[in-house]
Structure formats: C-alpha cells, structure tokens
Amino acid sequence: MFLRKSIHTLAQRYYSTNVNTVGVIGGGQMGAGIAQVLAQVAKKNVILVDLNKNVIEKSLIGINGFLQKSVSKGVITEEDKENTLKRISFSDDLNSLKNVDFVVEAIVENTEIKCNLFKDLAKICKPGTILASNTSSISITQIASHTNEPQNVIGMHFMNPVPIMKLVEVIPGLQTSEETQKTTLKLAVEMNKTTTFSKDMPGFIANRLLMPYINEAVQALHEGLGTKEDIDTTMKLGCNMPMGPLTLADFIGLDTCYSIMNILHTQLGDKYKPSPLLKRYVEAGRLGKKVKHGFYTY
Ligand SMILES: NC(=O)c1ccc[n+]([C@@H]2O[C@H](COP(=O)([O-])OP(=O)(O)OC[C@H]3O[C@@H](n4cnc5c(N)ncnc54)[C@H](O)[C@@H]3O)[C@@H](O)[C@H]2O)c1
Q1: So where does NAD(+) get bound (predicted)?
Q2: Which tens digits make up the pLDDT trace of 44-68?
Q3: Which of 92, 96, 256, 259 to mutate to test the pocket of ligand 1 (most atoms within 8 A of CB)?
C-alpha cells in the first residue's frame, strides 16, 4: 500500500492542476462519490450542491459511512477521514459555486434539465471555469452550446461506485479546447483515475456497449426466457461477469438506464429501442437499489 501511495503522490506532483476548489452538482450516488474522491484522494476543497436538502443529508451520511469502513479496514486513518470531511461543504444554492475553479455536474440524466443548469452555471461561475458533465449519454457539444464558453465544457464520465472504479471516460465536445482537456486529464490523475477518450457520440464507449446488453437482459426477462435469477446467474457464472445484468441495472438506477436507452434509440435507431418492461419499472417507481426496489428488493 505504501508503494502504491508513493507512486500516486509522485504522479499527483507531476500532473497537478491549478484547481483548488471544485463544485459538484447533484448529491446522488455519483455526485457523492465524485465529491468524496476529489476531497479524499485529490485533496481538493469541494462544494456539493443539490436542490434537495434530504439528499444532502443522505450524501453526508453515505460519504461518512464509506470513509468509516475504510478506517475500519485500515485503508485510511481516522485523521484522513476527518480531513476529507473538513474539505467538503454542502449547499442547496447554485450561487455558492461562483468562485470555484472546476465544476462536475452529476444531476439527473435529462437533456433539458442539464442544458438549463449549464445555462445558469455560465451566468454564475467566473470566466474560465471548466464545466464538466458526468452525463452517461447526452451530447457534450449540445450541453456546451448553452454556455458562453463552450471551449471550457467537457464530458468527465465516472463509473459507479466512484471511490472504487478506476476509469474516467473523457469526452471533448466539438469546441472543447486543448487546455480544458489537459486540465481535466490532470484532475483525473490527481483523483488516481485512469482515463480513456471517447468521441462525443450517444452513450460514448461505456454505455454504447453496456446499455444494449442490460436492455437485452430486461427484454429476455419480459419474454420469459428465464427468471431474473436464471438470467443473472447465467451471465455471472457462465460468462464471468462480476454481477448479473439485472443486478447491475438495479445498481445503476433503472431511470438512468431508461434515459440512456432513449438517447441511443432516438439518435442511433431502432436497434436500441428500450424494452417495454424497463419502461414499466420506471413508471412504477421501481428505480433500483437507490429506492430499495427494482428487479430485486434491497
Ligand atoms: N448511476 C450510475 O451508475 C451512473 C454512472 C455514470 C454516470 N451516471 C450519470 O450521473 C448522473 C447522476 O446519476 P446518479 O445515478 O447519481 O443519479 P441520482 O438519481 O442518484 O442523483 C441525481 C441527483 O441530482 C439532483 N438534481 C436533479 N436536478 C438537479 C438540479 N437542477 N440541481 C441540483 N441537483 C439536482 C437530485 O436531487 C439527485 O440527488 C446522470 O447524468 C447519470 O447518467 C450515472
């Protein structure tokens, strides 16, 4: 562990950015994880903003719980935990981001809501602030067109759970500058993440490949090809997947899966049509693990 920590400290020194304070918008499962890693690993000051005060409370409990587990396992010290928590502040007011150097947006996967948020951010944040979106599928170029500095807008797609998963997909939009790309890559290194680049196409690389697989599993369940356990166990034990596709869908959030499939369907054609059963689950509010009820009950 010592060696790994030293290599990371060296990489951080070599690649460090001028970013001191980062605003994270959306305190759901992704936003909370991004805020934690920014504060814990990259040692940034973080302002986590969510419109919903209950979510803010839940994020704090979640981050605290994750850090406490790491202390119990001996991965970090009690002091590391306290210092991480001190670096994160919480707000329900977007104006609290007026002095940040970098923003990571992680709100609901909805094109109109994201575009409106970026329009507001362009008015609130100081000129030169990099605005990154953690969108799973929405065009970065389209989001950027709602700001007055599209060169500063970029996709920074983290994987779930953020403190554990190594990858960040980086997606430059049509007008994203080299400078914005460099700073984003450096920030990802400071967070101890590995990066890949994807063209700004629906779903980028990860979800262009993953979502049709999950959707097909839902369709298989819809057609009665097997029970949910049959489908998940077949893929887990038969194909060495770390978890079955329906369990994974519950983990991601069925609303998020459905939104991504809709973007793929609208922009890439009928091959990507969401399964009617996925739609039904979303209509029923059975959104997966985050609400304790999806294909499975938690
Ligand atoms: N869930 C995943 O596995 C995963 C993985 C990678 C990327 N993403 C992407 O990350 C984003 C967030 O996903 P999530 O799973 O964390 O969703 P989530 O439903 O857990 O959280 C979304 C949060 O955004 C907040 N919110 C909504 N509108 C807001 C606004 N205008 N201002 C401030 N807060 C607002 C909501 O209160 C909620 O807390 C989505 O774009 C999703 O596609 C998700």
Answers
A1: 26-31, 50, 109, 114, 136, 160, 290
A2: 999 999 999 999 999 999 999 999 9
A3: 256
**Interface pTM (ipTM) of the complex?**
0.98
What's the predicted TM-score (pTM) here?
Answer: 0.94
3-state secondary structure of 172: strand
All residues at 6 or more sequence positions from 154 whose CB lies less than 8 Å from its CB, including other chains = 130, 131, 132, 133, 140, 170, 171, 172, 173, 176, 180, 181, 184
191, 38 Cβ separation under 8 angstroms: yes
Half-sphere exposure of 274 (CA within 13 A, CB side): 21
User: Does 121 sit in the ligand 1 pocket, CB within 6 Å?
Assistant: no
Residue type, 2: F
Instruction: Tell me the per-residue pLDDT of 156-208, one tens digit each, with 9 for 90 and over.
Output: 999 999 999 999 999 999 999 999 999 999 999 999 999 999 999 999 999 99
The rounded Å distance from CA 147 to ligand 1 centre is 20
Task: Give the separation between CA 57 and CA 230, rounded to whole angstroms.
Answer: 37
The alpha carbon dihedral of 247, 56, 90, 73 has a sign of negative
Mutation pick for ligand 1 pocket among 36, 107, 167 (CB with most ligand atoms within 8 Å): 107
Say yes or no: CB of residue 26 within 6 Å of ligand 1.
yes
User: Quick one: which atom of ligand 1 is closest to the CA of 52?
Assistant: 37
In degrees, rounded to 5, the angle at the alpha carbon of residue 118 between the alpha carbons of residues 281 and 147 is 140
Residue 40 marked in a binding site: no
| Rounded CA separation 286/247 (Å) | 13
